[in-house]
């Protein structure tokens, strides 16, 4: 088992969430530059991330370390959950844009993780946590009640919620089984790539781009930073940080992603949706206070 302090775990999860916040924007640019669909983007994200982590493991193989025996069942379930979560997230981006897809996905996830952690892992929720769940639900209702924004669609909302459910499952599984987090990340990314490959081949797996250098750079970035680095740090952080805490910290992602979507990609949040985002931030604060209960 990898031993990290709580402070290190909090830092790792924070860095992972920040890196994830750039993944949606990279995917949105790939839709434009590489003419790739969401499943194909997911395949390349997993494949490049797995290749980079495999190379890292080979380069550090000579260093003395105690590696726990991985559970094949855990790796397969984690990889399948990641494949569904990421593909659904990218489909939500394609349907509704980065801002709405990310805020809905990451807004619902802490609620699901908090409930699942209480039921499956025995983590306490507390009164602040219960208020946080209520605020998150209210925020989601406000966010979608006015059409969410320029690109809102019911299909996009459905994909985002599916992504949230499977992301919550991956988070709970990562907290429950904490042995060799980097090995788990590598195996899960490889499984995820295999899961989405058949659909990616049907959708078109190769970028049809007039600028292959730009498409390749975006794919490399997506596989390296929001995938290999972020998931490796996230699963390592989960060895020291409770699932609910990690899910709360992960809400750093929609803040960054929403700003990127609005400021750089020309997306717009309607006033009611902006109010919903504010209520979601209140839910983050309440869930953070719940960690002290």
Give the helix/strand class. Answer: mainly alpha
- What count of helical segments does DSSP give? 11
Number of domains: 1
Beta-strand portion reads under 5%
What would you say this structure looks like, in words?
The protein is mainly α. The chain has one domain (6-290). The protein has eleven helices and no strands. It has helices spanning 6-33, 38-59, 72-96, 98-121, 126-145, 154-176, 181-203, 212-237, 243-249, 252-263, 271-290. It is globular, with a radius of gyration of 18 Å. The protein starts with 5 loop residues before the first helix and ends with a helix. The mean pLDDT is 80.
Task: Please specify the SSE layout and strand pairing.
Blueprint: H1 6-33, H2 38-59, H3 72-96, H4 98-121, H5 126-145, H6 154-176, H7 181-203, H8 212-237, H9 243-249, H10 252-263, H11 271-290
Helix pairs in contact: 1-3, 1-8, 1-10, 2-3, 2-7, 2-8, 3-4, 3-6, 3-7, 4-5, 4-6, 4-9, 4-10, 5-11, 7-8, 9-11
Explain briefly what this protein structure is:
The protein is built from eleven helices and no strands. 78% of the residues lie in helices and 0% in strands.
Features:
293 residues, mainly alpha, 78% helix
